[in-house]
Amino acid sequence: MTAATISGPKDFLSEVMAATPGDNRLNHCIQCGSCGGSCPSGAEMEHTPRRLFALIRAGERKTVLMSNAPWYCVSCYYCTVRCPQNIHITDVMYTLKAMAIQAGLYHDTSLPDFSETFVDYVEKYGRSFELGLATRFNLRHHPLSLAGMAPLGLNMLKRGRIDLTPHRIEGMAQLSAILERAKSLEGVLA
Amino acid sequence: MKALFYPGCSMQRNARPYLDSLLAIRADIGLELQEIDDWNCCGATEYMSVHRVAAHSLIGRNLALAQAQAVDTDVLTAGCSACFLNLSKTDTQMREDAKLNGTVNEALAAGGLHYDAGSLKVRHLLDLVCHDIGYDAVKARVVKPLYGLKVAAYYGCQVVRPDYDGRWDSHEHPTAMDTLLRALGAEVVDWSLKTQCCGGHMSVIGPEVAFGLIRRLIHGAAEAGADMVVTLCPMCQLNLDAYQVEMNKHFHTDYRVPVLYFTQLMGLAFGKSAKELGIGKEFVDATPALAKIQAEAPKVAEAKRRRRPKPGDGLPMPRME
Q1: By Cβ atoms counted within 10 A, which residue in A24, A98, A120, B302 is the most buried?
Q2: What is the ipTM of this complex?
């Protein structure tokens, strides 16, 4: 085995670590599986976090970024507080999602699309807009379930729990300038 | 006490009862709130999945505005778990990661803003009520104790985990809200699911996963004999309340466990009207459960006799004779 093939896999691990803020300790994984065992959606994941981290080490970039696992992460942080090596697992999942979007790698477009639709509304108005998000997302990905979801929407309206129009913040120009500059710096962490 | 206040998008509409009940009780507990002027969305769990630096900058704008607008306080509070955690996460990671700190401040500079990481204390509302205002101050305002009401205290995930500032007694079995609800006169049931996930965004992107998690929680609360679940987060309330109806359809079940905010129960115990506290906007009707609140204290059950240890019970221990 040449040095090049050994350094190949290492690169993906370093890339993920560099893109995750703080002392994330991903290289300290001992493959104990506490993460997957603690995960509320672990059973539905194509790879548990433990397997995902082994794949990262093995440099299996495509398999890792194609996995539904990061998208099924509900950010409950059970794995993070239970990890005996104090790896910032939930934060690593965020990194993998952002990398998958950047690389355009996923089987199920609905997973990143929910996040991206949410982001679109925030970037347009400075606030989230639930009605728009739910309608746009479901129209695109689950049009048949819309009829089934209608009573939920109507009941939200009846209880005054959903806005019909979005709220725009006053400092929208300021926020846009900040986000634009931030995106131009996005590669800096990695 | 005084605190800067970040309401967050949910509290404006979907969780309006949470905001209304907080505003109704704040004077009773001596809490003065200064809302951050022109705050923006925290990005929930979604923005960070798309753009990392931009997500921290989005949150950074709120922190910078809060720092600049603060009058006589350095405490920043939020009632929503996700809002609280995002504010706390960006503050913590900017403090710990010099590179991130520099990058976020460079982005903020494009909007003429700056945030000094660590200059604000980010606290969840429950934390302020339990640890700063304190149980005694709450108890002193109770005029209509919630005797006879059995509640399951539900903390969800993001307030007690990862708990960057070490504010809670446990990440998995915290007790602060239990103690608070007991101070209001309610009976707090014992259950093991108090920090299990409500499903988060899975109720939209993978409803079947969420339904499973919601059923587990609602079934657990019902089995423990709770009349209602008490929560501290708009997302948890929405999933357990509105999606409880959908979950029932999915599993052909008929659970009816109402889900209220801890601020609503505080309001009831302080003698406020249900209407003022936004009670009635929940999907699962809380009226039958609230009918149980008795005017009189329930009789204290006789102290249970201590079980005498059987010989050979547990590990052999040395004895002093």
Answers
A1: A98
A2: 0.91
